[in-house]
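// run 5 | inverse folding | seed 20
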């Protein structure tokens, strides 16, 4: 009798342990994996991480970007002819956009590691959409471009896409930003994406190139 009871307890104990282990497996399986798909990989692409400059002499270096010149986050609608909430541009524009400051050329660069997505990228099934709102001031030629460059593990470029510039004619000589977008397949050898925004001044003292809502989204398809 004691032997049977002992065996019964053993069976119950083993079953209980198995249930716990099985539950653990299910819990691990159900936990969402870190994914780069379906979301904007650009950090602070909308210039909202900082309180933007409130004058054309103030420079606010935007978080998440490595900058040159006087690349700055600027509040919409500050005095001096900057884009405001009534200017054409993104519907969801937040409080700030990016501007070029008092420099002939201002740039911002951001490096995005693609290592979490390498297995899928190597199969050639990952596509990207690179987009931004780009513009300038009135009828001046000052402009903005945005480029994404895909690099391999050795640092060599394996593909790129450039947005802009938006010309005064395209803006109908008005201050504002226009949407630009390019899509394609992420090169199989890509291990990182470099996003670069360049503002170029052609006249005047202030670099009136402007940009907002810079985005790089990956999709598996």
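// decoded
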């Amino acid at each position: 009798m004691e032997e049977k009871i002992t065996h019964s307890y053993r069976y119950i104990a083993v079953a209980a342990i198995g249930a716990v282990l099985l539950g653990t497996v299910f819990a691990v399986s159900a936990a969402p994996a870190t994914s780069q798909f379906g979301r904007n990989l650009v950090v602070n692409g909308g210039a909202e991480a900082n309180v933007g400059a409130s004058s054309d002499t103030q420079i606010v270096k935007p978080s998440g970007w490595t900058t040159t010149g006087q690349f700055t986050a600027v509040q919409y609608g500050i005095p001096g002819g900057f884009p405001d909430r009534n200017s054409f541009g993104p519907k969801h524009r937040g409080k700030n956009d990016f501007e070029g400051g008092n420099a002939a050329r201002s740039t911002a660069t951001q490096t995005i590691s693609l290592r979490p997505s390498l297995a899928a990228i190597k199969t050639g099934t990952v596509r990207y959409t690179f987009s931004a709102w780009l513009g300038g001031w009135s009828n001046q030629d000052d402009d903005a471009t945005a480029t994404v460059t895909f690099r391999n593990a050795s640092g060599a470029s394996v593909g790129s896409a450039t947005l802009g510039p938006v010309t005064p004619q395209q803006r109908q000589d008005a201050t504002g930003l226009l949407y630009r977008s390019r899509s394609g397949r992420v090169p199989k050898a890509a291990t990182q994406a470099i996003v670069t925004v360049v503002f170029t001044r052609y006249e005047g003292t202030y670099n009136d190139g402007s940009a907002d809502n810079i985005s790089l989204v990956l999709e598996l398809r």
